């Protein structure tokens, strides 16, 4: 089943009165349960593409549909609801809330969904167990290593059981050993949860783990390989 369909997507930015193209007619489809890397050099448009899928930015022309809905036709409120219910995000900078504990960070998305406090804690505890952080629920981000913080970010993304997880350069701030551990964890979760993972990356290790690799260059699809 297709979870995302992009057709002739164009994204331009305005910089000092000039139009700067980020994406130039990208057409791609993603099936449920994929583990896919959108790769390419800096400036290729990979992060822009993820931000458009994640309803964090709006396209200039073309269409992106999710669950049969054309994102461009939705209001800001409707887009926020899609982000809240259907999409999990993992960022290279982790984006954890520093004043909250690990448990509070992971349960926060459920709080936004109006989930009962006790149920939210139970689900957060299970998500932390899945990423191997059972004993750290009362720590704060500054008390953890980069790899541990990224595991918290993965648990936070998974806790609401989204259809899609978008991971923007998730290994960029990790050493190779920790990055490999994080990727193996995400492979396991992809297989057990059947969640669609879409990465933006220039890390060859991420591409090696992906079952599908889409190469972007200068805002266009240059090549695509499947394993």
The strand order across the widest sheet is 6-7-8-3-9-10
Low-confidence stretches: none
Estimated structural class:
alpha/beta
State mean pLDDT (0 to 100 scale): 92
| Termini separation | 19 Å
**Reported CATH architecture:** 3-Layer(aba) Sandwich
Order of helical and strand elements: EEEHEEHEHHHEHEHEE
The proportion of residues forming helix, as a percent range, comes to: 25-40%
Topology (SSEs and partners):
Layout (H helix, E strand, L loop, with lengths): L1 E14 L2 E14 L3 E5 L6 H8 L7 E6 L2 E2 L5 H11 E5 L10 H11 L4 H14 L15 H13 L5 E5 L7 H18 L2 E6 L2 H6 L2 E6 L2 E7 L1
Parallel strand pairs: 3-8, 3-9, 6-7, 7-8
Antiparallel strand pairs: 1-2, 1-4, 4-5, 9-10
Description:
It is globular, with a radius of gyration of 17 Å. By secondary structure, the chain is α/β, with parallel strands linked by helices. A six-stranded mixed sheet has the order 6-7-8-3-9-10, sandwiched between helices. A four-stranded antiparallel sheet has the order 2-1-4-5, with helices on one face. The protein has one domain: P-loop containing nucleotide triphosphate hydrolases (Rossmann fold), CATH 3.40.50. 36% of the residues lie in helices and 31% in strands.
Short summary:
The chain is α/β, with parallel strands linked by helices and 227 residues long. 36% of the residues lie in helices and 31% in strands. It has a six-stranded mixed beta sheet with strand order 6-7-8-3-9-10, with helices on both faces.
């Amino acid at each position: 089943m297709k979870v995302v369909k992009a057709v002739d997507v164009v994204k331009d930015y305005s910089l000092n009165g000039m139009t700067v193209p980020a994406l130039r007619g990208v057409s791609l489809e993603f099936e449920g349960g994929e583990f896919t890397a959108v790769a390419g050099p800096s400036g290729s448009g990979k992060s822009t593409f993820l931000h458009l899928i994640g309803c964090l930015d709006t396209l200039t022309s073309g269409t992106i549909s999710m669950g049969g809905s054309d994102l461009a036709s939705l209001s800001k409120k409707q887009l926020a609801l899609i982000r809240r219910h259907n999409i999990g995000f993992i960022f290279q900078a982790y984006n954890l809330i520093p004043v909250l504990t690990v448990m509070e960070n992971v349960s926060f998305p459920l709080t936004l969904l109006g989930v009962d406090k006790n149920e939210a804690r139970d689900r957060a505890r299970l998500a932390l167990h899945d990423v191997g952080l059972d004993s750290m629920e009362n720590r704060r981000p500054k008390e953890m290593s980069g790899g541990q913080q990224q595991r918290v970010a993965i648990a936070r993304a998974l806790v609401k059981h989204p259809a899609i997880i978008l991971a923007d350069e998730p290994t960029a701030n990790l050493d190779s050993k920790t990055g490999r551990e994080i990727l193996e964890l995400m492979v396991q979760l992809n297989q057990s949860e059947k969640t669609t993972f879409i990465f933006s990356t220039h890390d060859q290790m991420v591409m090696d783990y992906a079952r599908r690799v889409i190469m972007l260059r200068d805002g266009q699809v240059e090549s695509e390989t499947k394993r």
